[in-house]
Amino acid sequence: MKIQKFGVPLASLAILVAAYHYYGWPGVAVASGALVMWMLLHFSRMMQILKRAANRPIGHVGSAVMLNAKLKPGVPLLHVVAMTRSLGALQSPKDTQPELYRWTDAGESHVTCEFHDGKLQKWLLERPVQPDEIANDSRDAPAP
Question: 58-79, pLDDT tens digit by residue?
């Protein structure tokens, strides 16, 4: 998180200084135009993801099992929202770390994700117990 917080502005400043050093003010104009274009592309992508998520129920995903298979540690929250096309249902108190979000599918399976500073740390898939699984477990138990 600190790299993004300090690294991106420092890299942008370094690009502007290098452009001025090698090409003067026309170089600064081109470099600043490229930086603004990069920021607009990032903003546009973020708005498109949030627009898609706004049209779906909060905390709903097509398949919790498939979401569980696609998740990787360190993935940003925005990427998970893009995968699910839905905002997660907040499970932790607001504005506290770590943040817990849950996505549930139609079969009542759900994935609970833990984010620290906006990055996925761990997740847990929980599936409901089916009645036939309970019956199979009781048949497998030894007789008294």
Answer: 989 989 999 999 999 999 999 9
pLDDT in the model for residue 129: 80
Is cis: bond before 9, omega within 30 of 0?
no
Give bridge partners of residue 5 from the DSSP assignment. Answer: none
- Per-residue model confidence as pLDDT tens digits over 39-65: 999 999 999 999 999 888 998 998 999
pLDDT value of position 1: 53
104-109's contacts with Cβ under 8 Å and 24+ in sequence apart are 104/59, 104/60, 104/61, 104/64, 105/60, 105/61, 105/62, 105/63, 105/64, 105/65, 107/64, 109/63, 109/64, 109/65
CATH architecture designation of domain 58-131: 2-Layer Sandwich (3.30)
Q: How far apart are CA 90 and CA 68, in angstroms?
A: 18
Reduce the DSSP state of residue 22 to 3 states and report it. helix
Domain ranges in the chain? 2-53, 58-131
Whole-model pTM?
A: 0.75
Residue 138 vs residues 113, 133, 135: alpha-carbon distances, Å: 32, 9, 5
